[in-house]
Amino acid sequence: MSRSGERQVALADLYSNDGIDYIKRRPDEILAEILLDTLHEWKSTYWKLRRRGSFDFPVLSVAAAARLSRDNVVEDARIVVGAAACRPLAAPEAAKSLLGRPLNQQTINEAAVLAARIAKPLDNTDFDMTWRKRSPLNL
Questions:
Q1: CATH architecture of 39-138
Q2: Nearest by Cα to 89 from 62, 113, 112, 122
Q3: pLDDT tens digits along 7-61
């Protein structure tokens, strides 16, 4: 615990877009707990592109969650792109494009194109940067 006591920080405010000071934590603080909303009736997935097996750091990642109606129509959605900047990037346009539509390959592909627009891959891996930025539909 910090000398100034416990504090809560919204996850969206925890990261900064700075490669060295990427997390807003003071030197005398320890991240002790992450509190998540209960997302009943939500489905989620996480995909990680990496050179080696699951233990390797991602060179690109995407987390997506959606709440679907009984007839598979998206009622709410969230999409976050990781490893494409110094901090995770929310993709609100991509998530919004799914609303009111059935979750199928076409709507997923359209959202993927929108999510890819915000990605600005850093040149910090041995992968070719243009390959990392290529359209998700061509992978």
A1: 2-Layer Sandwich (3.30)
A2: 62
A3: 888 887 888 777 677 788 888 888 888 888 888 889 999 998 877 766 677 878 8
Which residue blocks in 1-139 are alpha helix, DSSP H? 11-14, 92-98, 105-118, 129-133
Phi-psi group of 133: left, alpha or beta (phi > 0 → left; psi -120 to 50 → alpha; rest → beta): alpha
Domain boundaries, the chain: 39-138
| HSE-CB of 119 using CA atoms within 13 angstroms | 26
Encode pLDDT of 117-138 as tens digits.
Answer: 988 766 666 666 565 555 555 5
How much is the pLDDT for 135? 52
* Residue recorded with tokens 């707990």: 33
Q: CA 108, CA 97: separation in Å to the nearest integer? A: 9
Distance CA 3, CA 117 (A): 42
Spatial neighbors of 66 by CB under 8 A, at least 6 apart, are: 42, 43, 44, 74, 75, 76, 77, 78, 98, 103
